[in-house]
Structures are given as C-alpha cells and as structure tokens.
Amino acid sequence: MTRNIPATLAELREGEEACLDRIDLPEPEARRLMELGFLPGTRIAAARSSPFGDPRVYRVDGSEVALRRETAARLMVRESPEIRGE
After folding, report:
1. All structural domains of the chain
2. How far apart are CA 26 and CA 74, in angstroms?
3. How far is the C-alpha of 61 from the C-alpha of 43, rounded, in Å?
C-alpha cells in the first residue's frame, strides 16, 4: 500500500495488504467482525470481488470473508512495518 494513511479497507486494491487499525461500527457489528478475525493489528489482504465489485473477499487470519463496500469503508487500516519491508 503506497498511499497516505489512514485509509479504509474498502480502498485497498486486489492483492494489497494492510494492518487493521480500528473498526468504526456499532458494537454488535464490530463484535461480529472481531469474531471472524478482524482484530486491530491483524494483517488483511484484499482478494477477489464479485463481477460488479461488491461484495469483496478479504483474507484475514487464514480465512476468506466477504464484506460489502459500505462495511469495509468503516474499517480503518494502516501500513505496517512488515508490509513496508522494514
């Protein structure tokens, strides 16, 4: 990821990775995402998307999870040192 940070998960292009910084959703929805592996500090990769671009599949903690764009736009990500190669 070579853009200015912060960014959202929805802004990642296919194949890009980022580190989850925070989830900006109501508590019940945030809790469900955390149960699926979307925890702050976790690396997430943007995988494939449907033919019309929504939803998109993300790889997180060894699983693939499909999220709608409106949900992914509420997950803030940042570049991590491992991703930058430091």
Report:
1. 7-84 (2.30.30.90)
2. 10
3. 8
Q: How many residues does the chain have?
A: 86
Query: One digit per residue, pLDDT tens: the chain, 86 residues?
Result: 455 555 999 999 999 999 999 999 999 999 999 999 999 999 999 998 888 878 999 999 899 999 999 999 999 999 866 654 44
Strand 56-60 vs strand 63-67: parallel, antiparallel, or unpaired?
antiparallel
Sequence-distant (≥ 6) Cβ neighbours of residue 28 within 8 angstroms: none
Cross-strand partners of 65: 58
3 state SS of 27: helix
| Beta strands per DSSP E along 1-86 | 7-8, 17-23, 43-49, 56-60, 63-67, 75-78
